[in-house]
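User: Before I run my own analysis I want an independent prediction to cross-check against. Here's the chain; please return only the structure tokens and, at the end, one sentence I can use as a sanity check.
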Amino acid sequence: MIQNNSNFLSIEQVQNQYFNNKPKTSSAKPTASGFSFNQVLEQIQSQNQTEGVKFSKHAMGRLNDRNIELTDAQMDRLNKGMIQAGEKGINESLILVDQLAFIVNIPNNTVVTAMDQTGTDSNVFTNIDGAVIA
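Assistant: Structure tokens:
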């Protein structure tokens, strides 16, 4: 007589033991740093929003050439306009603050160029995919 030393009596019991009792895994798998992709993404996005707008070398030159100085209130409005443009999916935005116009690369939070109302002859802006009046 062959003696069965296992505790299982059927294939169904084996299946239940190995397939139904697996620990539940979350869809957010941790990365090498121990954070899920969503956690890392949210952290980077919040850092980008809190860093505020940056000015390219070209934009800084334009501001200096045209003697444009921004107040704290104007900077806040420019930052808010940049956030609004990002929320709408705009990549290259014209942001108007008072009589100032800024072309902003939204993914990089960078002002590409800046001008005041007298700085442009034709009032034509190219290579933008959205505008914000802040």
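Sanity check: The beta strands are 54-55, 92-97, 100-105, 110-116, 130-133.
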